[in-house]
Amino acid sequence: MDSGLSLSITQVDAFTDRPFAGNPAAVCLLPSEREASWMQLVAREMNLAETAFLVRRPDGFGLRWFTPTVEVDLCGHATLASAHVLWEEGHLSAGETARFHTRSGLLTAARRDGRIWLDFPALPETPAEPPEDLARALGVPIRHFGVNPIDSLAEVDSEKTLLGLRPDLVALRRLGGRGLIVTCQGRSEKGYDFASRFFAPGAGIDEDPVTGSAHCCLGPFWAKRLGRTEMTGYQASARGGFVTVRCRGERVELGGNAVTVLRGTLLDSPS
């Protein structure tokens, strides 16, 4: 490949309506497929929770997601960021649905009611016995524990407990899977129905700011607890962000906003 080739790359804050909040993702639209090893190097260079790579197809876009250390099977905030970039930069018309072909099947994004809505698979948890050292790693009692195909979920007793977590990340890394969702019931007077935090040290992310895909699990979990199909979740990281969740059987709609904060040029080099 010509060493003089350059590619545009855009950094977007997802699940927020203001810059420097929510979850940042880099989005790179490629003219053709590239090697996974090259994409991993770019993701490591960007050093964000996720870097998304898009390649146009006749019926949409191929989409792959990379943390600084691994490729992942599902990512909400980088999908939302990708759709935002496609509309903002004119790759899709304003009313056109974004179609993404991914390792988790076909995912779509549409703009409605002033938000971007992602159509994702529901990933409900199955109750299980917590690992023996999990409570010790979190430093707090666990009210409920469950697992789904990619993550584990632990419920704690209150938002005060959730906010005060200082987990042993080395111990969490040994749990396996992508990461651990920790959640509690929210405070309706603050405008959200449940709160969460997400830890994925095994995937190179000690704590993710706002994890859209975790809400594919959180939505069904809290729908059963609260008897509702539409809820608002708050991810209580240092940056913080809100995700609106609509449970639709085997699918979950995730709603949020996005803000572009940076546009740059990636100076490519031979593979």
Describe the protein in words.
The protein has 2 domains: 6-108 and 258-267, Diaminopimelate Epimerase, Chain A, domain 1 (Roll); 126-249, Roll (Diaminopimelate Epimerase, Chain A, domain 1). It has an 18-stranded mixed sheet that branches. The model has no long low-confidence stretch (mean pLDDT 95). It has helices spanning 36-46, 76-88, 134-138, 159-163, 169-173, 215-226, and strands spanning 6-14, 23-30, 50-57, 60-66, 71-72, 98-102, 105-112, 115-121, 126-127, 144-147, 151-155, 179-185, 194-200, 205-208, 230-235, 241-248, 251-256, 258-267. Helices cover 19% and strands 42% of the residues. With 271 residues, the protein is an alpha+beta fold. It has 6 helices and 18 strands. It is globular, with a radius of gyration of 18 Å.
Core attributes:
2 domains; alpha+beta; 18 strands; 18-stranded mixed β-sheet; globular; Diaminopimelate Epimerase, Chain A, domain 1; 6 helices; about 270 residues; about 40% strand
Number of domains: 2
**Could you give the distance between the termini?**
7 Å
The run of helices and strands is EEHEEEHEEEEHEEHHEEEHEEEE
CATH architecture of the largest domain: Roll
User: Average pLDDT value?
Assistant: 95
Query: Which structural class should the secondary elements be placed in?
Result: alpha+beta
Number of helices: 6
Low confidence ranges: none
Percentage of β-strand residues: 35-45%
CATH topology of the largest domain: the name is Diaminopimelate Epimerase, Chain A, domain 1
Helix content: 10-25%
Gyration radius, to the nearest Å? 18 Å
